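Example 3.
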Amino acid sequence: MAKAFKNGSKGITGTLHSAERKLIRELFSDLIEMLEERARLHQLPEDIDPLYALTGMRPESMDLPPIADPALARLLPDASDDAVAAAEHRRLTEADSIAQKVGRLREAQLLLETDRLVLDKDAATRFAQALNDVRLVLAERLQIRSEEDSARVAEVLDASEVETPEEYMSLVYNLISWVLDTLMGALMDAES
Amino acid sequence: MVAMTAMPDVLSEFETLVSQDKPWRLVVWNDPVNLMSYVSYVFRSYFGFSPEKAEKLMLQVHHDGFCTVRSGSREAIESDVQAMHGFGLNATMTQGA
């Protein structure tokens, strides 16, 4: 079983065991794949104005298509209720946001190659962001839309009683939530 | 509250000009997924708020469903929204009150 993250003289430390690490790394991979599939839509046509090709900026006439998968939409939400403003923000920032998320997920994957994690504050914050992105996607798959849904999922804690794939996913969600909560406690402690 | 004794005499063109300069607001919305500890830490570390202020704003999001975390120029708020999305928080930008 995972051990809670703590802040101490060596930095922020925590332990995740082999089966847990394997599972979470697979989830990181799934997210990287989802994000990279979206990133492929960002590629500009080859015959584009060289200025755009050089800067990687998208011309105003080339808004990105809406995101169909609600879990991916949760990772890359609209920045405004105003559709025009949201599309503009997406056109200007989405590629960058994807690159940052993928970077943090890859870093987190590497960190999970060993049982014991020793992190400084910045690395711990990036690890927390990666874990939280996994939670957002699992929550969407588990259809957590209200506090009641959240309470329903939180009840699944005993691995020996898990029977359905949804219960298994709930168990994983609860494990990652617990790990993240202890990590936030350690970060708060490091901050003060 | 201060009571107004007379309507200010303002030209309509001037009003239009002012409304364009209204500051943008960063609004963070409640959701049933993000942990309270996580949201509070994001407010502390990203905005540099005191633990008390971060906690207060986090609870406001939790209880009221949303909270204006800060306001500023369009550019500043745009970059805040992007950062909040990086943290996985539900955030939007909006102009005026």
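Chain A has one domain: 3-191. Chain A is about 60% helix and 10% strand.
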